[in-house]
Write a structure and sequence with these properties.
By secondary structure, the chain is an alpha+beta fold. Helix content is 40%, strand content 24%. It has a 3-stranded antiparallel β-sheet, covered by helices on one side.
Length: 122
């Protein structure tokens, strides 16, 4: 498979898959689709309604790992209330991820939104 330059760069330097637990609330949520060959776990640390850090554990292709890196980067520092505005289609375009892999990114979105639901329930 031919991966974009940005996917290759992000895959090689993926964000660590852990978050600091020293303060705030840490929530963890998973999503998967075995037919797509993807399992993802999102770790999110929230301090005073702000996302302090996000990390993903991803079992999937390099496109999925690169997308998780970009999503984690974009979410850090944002208000927890803005998570509904996550746009994985934009991430796919930015990373030149083929349309047929969009389902994998939608599962990542599911994990992020499940984290938000856990924070909202707290």
């Amino acid at each position: 498979m031919d991966y974009s330059t940005e996917v290759r760069r992000r895959f090689a330097a993926a964000v660590p898959n852990w978050v600091d637990h020293s303060d705030g609330v840490v929530v963890v949520a998973e999503a998967e689709d075995r037919t797509l060959g993807l399992w993802v776990r999102c770790h999110m640390r929230v301090v005073d309604s702000t996302i302090a850090s996000v990390a993903f554990e991803v079992f999937g292709c390099p496109d999925s790992i690169a997308a998780s890196s970009l999503i984690a980067e974009r979410l850090s520092g944002r208000s927890i209330k803005t998570l509904d505005q996550i746009d994985v289609r934009r991430v796919a375009v930015e990373l030149s991820i083929p349309t047929e892999k969009l389902g994998k990114l939608l599962r990542m979105e599911d994990a992020v939104l499940a984290c938000k639901a856990l924070v909202d329930a707290d």
